Amino acid sequence: MSTVALTGYTPEAVERGYSNRAAVPDHPRWFAWYAEKSAAARASITHCADLRYGPGPKETLDLFVPDGTARGTMAFIHGGYWRALDKHDVSFVAAPFVAQGIAVAAVNYDLCPAVSVSAIVDQCRRATAWLAREGGKHGASGERIVVGGNSAGGHLAAMVLATDPASLGLDATSFAGAVSVSGVHDLTPLVLFSFNIDMKLDVAEALRLSPAFLAPQSNAPLLLAVGGDETAEFLRQTWIQWDRWPQSRPPGASAPLIVPRCDHFSVLAEYADGSSALTRATLALF
Questions:
Q1: How far, in Å, are 28, 37, 115, 262, 271 from residue 276 at the CA level?
Q2: How far is Cα 97 from Cα 73, in angstroms, rounded to an integer?
Q3: For the segment 40-88, what is each residue's pLDDT rounded down to a tens digit?
């Protein structure tokens, strides 16, 4: 029997649990907010745009760098269910980290249905390896890398930690940590999701690409965060990863970071505040 059948999900329940735009009627204002704050970040922070890390049409990243020598690098991967959005939507994330001497790469990737989710995972692996190998030439740090992302980007960040660093030409100390904000860690319910017309996941592929059913391949801590007002499914997605990877919990953490009064879209905006709990917990990884 498939994992999907065992969970007892119906297509209707999956739509309720994963249709974030339906769950947050004012989501358009958050997309407008991302665009405004991101444009301001690109206008005010020194950065190299559209650095190519791989051969795919969208295998590029924007690298925001601090004055002086960077003390670490965060690779941040945007969300959008692997089928929408762009690195330009998350440029604003760079601001509080650059202010603390950390370079930030906003990572782009090709989108479903043009490519598969598996291909996107490989692209994010390439982006991380490129930063370790080439980032120093552009003002980043090839050491002390934190890979992070929100929603689908959180899934992709966790999948990088589930990858043998040696297969990327890296060693076990290359990663300082990872962050999954509102990440999808168990992909099996998405087989029943309407968006699967683009993702084209079956149960076997969903299991193969679910970090909750894989083992971490690095000792780096994984910070898990989610908005307290998100759907029950996104809260479950965070807790299942917490339960499955106990060895990856950040030092001193007794639970995932549940950000109060935040939904799936407003929680990402916490990165615009250098003093927010999410920003401070991420900075602690460095």
A1: 23, 16, 36, 12, 7
A2: 9
A3: 999 999 999 999 999 999 999 999 999 999 999 999 999 999 999 999 9
pLDDT-based confidence at 7, cuts 50/70/90? low
Is residue 156 helix, strand or coil? helix
Q: What are the phi and psi torsion angles at 223 (to 5°)?
A: -85, 125
The string of DSSP letters for 176-191 reads EEEEEES-----GGGG
Domain extent listing, the chain:
3-283
Q: Which residues of 125-150 are buried (b: 16+ CB within 10 A; e: fewer)?
A: bbbbbbbbeebbebbbbbbbbbbbbb
Residue range 3-283 in CATH 3.40.50.1820: yes
Beta strands in the chain (DSSP E): 47-52, 60-64, 73-77, 103-107, 145-150, 175-181, 222-227, 257-259
Amino acid at position 234, single letter: F
Q: Tokens representing 265?
A: 């879209």
Nearest residue to 76 (alpha-carbon basis) of 223, 187, 216, 275: 223
Cα-based angle 31, 20, 270 (whole degrees, multiple of 5): 50
d(CA 80, CA 117): 12
273/193 Cα distance (integer angstroms): 33
Return the ∠ at Cα 179 (arms to 174 and 184), rounded to 5°.
Answer: 125
In the block, tokens 């925001």 appear at 64
Entry pTM = 0.96
Average pLDDT over residues 141-160: 96
